[in-house]
Amino acid sequence: MAKKQKSNTVASPEESSNLKGTFIMVMILGVLMVSAWFGAYWLFISR
Amino acid sequence: MHLHKYEKVWLTFGMASLVIFLLIIGFAAFWKGTHPQSHLETIDQNNVEAHDSFKPENLGLTEVADGKYKVNIVASAFNYDFGVDKDEKAVKTIRVPQGSTVLFTITSKDVVHGFQVAGTNVNMMVEPGHISRYEAVMKNKGEFTIVCNEYCGIGHHQMFGKVEVY
Amino acid sequence: MDGTENNLRLFPKKDARLYMSFMYVTFVSLLVGGLMGLLQTFVRSGRFTLPFNINYYTILTVHGVILGLVLTTFFILGFQFALMGKTVGISDKQRNAGWVSFWMMLVGTVMTAVTILVGQANVLYTFYAPLAAHPAFYIGLALVIIGSWVGAFTNFRQLYVWKKAHKGEKSPLLAFMVVINMLMWVIASLGVAIAVVVQFIPWSLGYTETINVLVSRTLFWYFGHPLVYFWLLPAYMAWYAIIPKIIGGKLFSDSLARLAFILLLMFSIPVGFHHQLTEPGIDPTWKFIQVVLTMMVVIPSLMTAFSIFATFEIAGRKKGFSSLFGWFKKLPWGDVRFFAPFVGMVAFIPGGIGGIINASHQMNALVHNTIWITGHFHLTVATTVILTYFGIAYWLVPHLTGRRLTKQLNKLGIIQTIIWTVGMTIMSTAMHIQGLLGGPRRSAYSEYAGGAQVDTWIGYQLAQAIGGTILFIGILLMTYIFIKLTFFAPRGVEEFPIAAEDEDAQVTPKILENWYLWIGITIALIAFAYTIPMIDIIKHSPPGSIPFKWPIGRM
Ligand code: HEM
Ligand SMILES: [Cu+2]
Ligand SMILES: [Cu+2]
């Protein structure tokens, strides 16, 4: 898809936006999702 | 459209998790046959006795082979009919030994009901004109309440039974 | 374009009156429905019986219909009309259509509510056949739906007129989102409208003798899942396009927001079987196919999670915070317009995860129709969605009434949010646990066959009554805040916060506004997911069912 940037930008979004915190947050969320799902799956299997 | 590299990693992780979930339940469903209750047989709800499983004498618990049982039930507002015992009294409790395989077969004479043996994986919708079936291994000992878990009218909460696994 | 100026310009009186009318119904519903919720938890505690012989299932029907269908639909239409008015404008004719929509929905609501209250419709908000309510119940519902369509087509027209006047420009993000939500709503509610108009009304009036139960259920759930997304998308609108402004930031990405909404449109409809997983009469392969599609609709929510955190982080870093989580502390925690929706976002973490578990095919048997499900949607709709709606109301209501959210009211709002959080944590957690232990939903107090298992359930039901009481205090407080904001707060101009794009934002691809393409794919997916199983269901139908009145206490 079209990817156009205005020439007056100093840096690409990659460099200008430090999203480390965001990344850690979503990954915590992901781990929660996976563990909850397997927890439920375990319960299902054990019944 | 631009995706931040972390967003790519996150979405890949998220989608991979979803795919894994689907592979696990898909494998269990299609290869191990543990689909949710989806029996496709229909019946005339106005004349359920015409079906062999729901003849009055065939209701309730029957041992079909060693460690294998079947339980036939007719649901109606607000009662589960498990047949009668020797003294002609309505059966309310099903007793099976631990580890036995039990096939529950149930239909409704009137409205939609539920049938859940609480604490086990036996959980099905019961609908007029359809037969619901689920086979379960009773792995754990204990008393399990049977509840109607689909609203069927103002006596809904008085529709119950019990399974005892000894 | 920086819309700050526009954000501070109040609506003309006659526009504001239309939008406010929807808000009145919303908050009256909240109070009435909330009271029913409180009574439900009391009854289920086993220590309270309803006075005047009122039936538990009457109040449960009121609760479900008034909060699940009425409050949500009225708030959404009012909020979305305001968004359209702000971003693309409204003409006299369109405003009149808005009024038609409002009155049709209100007349329908009153008709339905009265029928329930006189005990002629103890069928709960899902009105499953062959339980038969009085025809007025179904006719009222049909009016609500058709009224909402008038609103939807007015919104479509508003954007269309704007587009014609702004050739070549991309539509304002919020207007785009409103149109997506209304498209989804119209396509989805067609299913329930067909069930109500073609099946239920003639059958309850006695013109047809029997009803096809499974077809009616399938049509209901074809509508039922997108219904919950219809509630959720306005919350997403606020998260994507309003919260950034409140926290002093910019849109994270206009194109990603649009893409998420398009994915939500495409995948929220062909998934209704995940509510019918334990039903007989539906081929398990087709159930599984819809389970796969259900997992697809998780993806835009994963995108949303990232966008939101990123919005927070970028805004914080622009203010000069460089440590890993320093930006987090700097969020405007004391601003209820942010705080209430934020708690909503947090609730969506367990809410969304629970949803994935519910939809996992055979695993559904673990939770189906247990009170876990009730716990689940009190997190999603009654926390995530409702707290975001409250967060919107704190500025929208004063913006409409020409008043201000004062410091004191803001503080009360914060307290309200905390009360809600505490009450819901207690109630919802107790419901989740009781559900895993097998406790059923939609059930008045019962000791069943007795025994240890039932005893543990009752303990959790007591906890729910405690949580419910706290929640109801929250509802009283919210009602007070609403009345203050409507009638008594000091006059002034409250901002209508709409976030702007970054100056150096990337250009939004044109394809995202190719309506024919997205509607086409949506319809194709629905056709794929439903045609064969629907033909199957109809071909293998058992005899139809006559109306059953006595089980719901009708003579
Ligand atoms: C004071 C706050 C509230 C309390 C105490 C409360 C309590 C309850 C309880 C106990 C039930 C389950 C009853 C049963 O299954 O027998 C229930 C069901 C329900 N609640 Fe709430 N609730 C509250 C707020 C809300 C809100 C704000 C919404 C939606 C916006 C909502 C939507 C629903 C719906 C749709 C049902 C399902 C009804 C049904 O199964 O037919 N509730 N509520
Ligand atoms: Cu029932
Ligand atoms: Cu759903």
From TrEMBL, chain B:
<protein>
    <recommendedName>
        <fullName>Cytochrome aa3 subunit 2</fullName>
    </recommendedName>
</protein>
<dbReference type="Pfam" id="PF00116">
    <property type="entry name" value="COX2"/>
</dbReference>
<keyword id="KW-0479">Metal-binding</keyword>
<comment type="function">
    <text>Subunits I and II form the functional core of the enzyme complex. Electrons originating in cytochrome c are transferred via heme a and Cu(A) to the binuclear center formed by heme a3 and Cu(B).</text>
</comment>
<keyword id="KW-0186">Copper</keyword>
<feature type="transmembrane region" description="Helical">
    <location>
        <begin position="9"/>
        <end position="31"/>
    </location>
</feature>
<dbReference type="InterPro" id="IPR034214">
    <property type="entry name" value="Ba3_CcO_II_C"/>
</dbReference>
<keyword id="KW-0812">Transmembrane</keyword>
<dbReference type="InterPro" id="IPR002429">
    <property type="entry name" value="CcO_II-like_C"/>
</dbReference>
<feature type="domain" description="Cytochrome oxidase subunit II copper A binding">
    <location>
        <begin position="17"/>
        <end position="166"/>
    </location>
</feature>
<dbReference type="InterPro" id="IPR051403">
    <property type="entry name" value="NosZ/Cyto_c_oxidase_sub2"/>
</dbReference>
<keyword id="KW-1133">Transmembrane helix</keyword>
<keyword id="KW-0472">Membrane</keyword>
<dbReference type="InterPro" id="IPR001505">
    <property type="entry name" value="Copper_CuA"/>
</dbReference>
<dbReference type="InterPro" id="IPR008972">
    <property type="entry name" value="Cupredoxin"/>
</dbReference>
